[in-house]
Model the fold of this input.
Amino acid sequence: MLDEGKSREELVDELNELKAILKSNQESTKKIIENERILSKTALELVDLPPHVDIYDFIAKKLGDLIENSLIAVSMYDEPSDSILVRSVIGENQRLIELSQKIMGGGLTDIKLPLRSFYEFYDDKEHQKNTILSGKLLKMEDGLYQVFAGRLPQKITRMVELTMNMGDMYGTGFESKGKLYGTVYIFLKKGNKLNNNELVQSLISLFAVAIQRKQAENEIKKALKEKELLLKEIHHRVKNNLMIISSLLNLQSAHIKDEGARNVFRESQNRAKSMAMIHERLYRSTDLKNIDFGEYIRSLTTDLYRTLVADPDRIRLDIDVEDVKIDINTVVPLGLIVNELVTNCMKHAFPDGETGYIKLELYQKSQKIVLKVIDNGIGFPEDLDYKKTSSLGLQLVNNLTKQIDGEFELDRNQGTSFALIFEEKE
Done:
């Protein structure tokens, strides 16, 4: 039933107005949803950005894809020199890029300007500085003259704008938590307008945070690299010092007539040499969390074999080790354990010219790592408790086993079998 106070025409007008409002709201909602989709997609892409992709190129391309008929120039802020460095230029207006090379003697990506030049030639310097640091997208009323911070005469910048059919220009800084990380400039062709300002502004804010995060990551990587180099240098020096100690012990032992004392010196020499080999491997390793301990065992035992076994035909050395990766905190005590067990076998398992073999095994079983040193010699004395012994070598083995939270087992059947079982910590 019609409202008696309004005519049919008035009601039709109201209905059409409501329909228009509804349509406008639907379009606004659709636009908001689409903007949120673009922002979410871009945020995920930034999180997963491969290391080889330059973030400034990524930003320029994203804005270039969004803003039609535009040229995008993205710069970074270099804090040590307090300068703006153009890092990426993307867009359709290649003539502007070519012209800049002629006018400025180089490409746009060769430009480096002191930050102060962006506000020093303005009357209100503080306002202009705050404008750059605001992170808000602003129209550059003075066009290229303002963009190039007065570096080019205004007559030339106006001529370039006319020749290139350039229209509106916008710019702002990548700002996050009050700190500047770079700038972005958007050049439009004459007659074009910057649509969807809200999305562009949101993307710029997102890019500012991404640049901040990227720079923080790079600083962490740089600091980590410096620490790794320092650690490698320390291992190199420790290795050299241990080799010097080993050589000194060797020289000193030549002047000792007592055989027992000479053996003590030789054992100490081998321990120093064993530790030197560990530090040599650490120095050469590219990943201190994953050191190939199997390769270390091959080198160490071969070296001990050549030193301690005078007749290779009498004692055979079998090495069956997997390439197990060990952390730096485990590899040092484990290397000393191998040195003590192998040295013990080579010195005591085959007295009076007896023959036999020594076998080393290293493998991973479930979450455990198993190291075995086996020989078919005379066997470990039945009356000797290897956990309570006066032998310095076995005392070292027991203490080092506790250090890596391992289990040490002894099997006296058919010779001697030492087994060390431990779990590599994350």
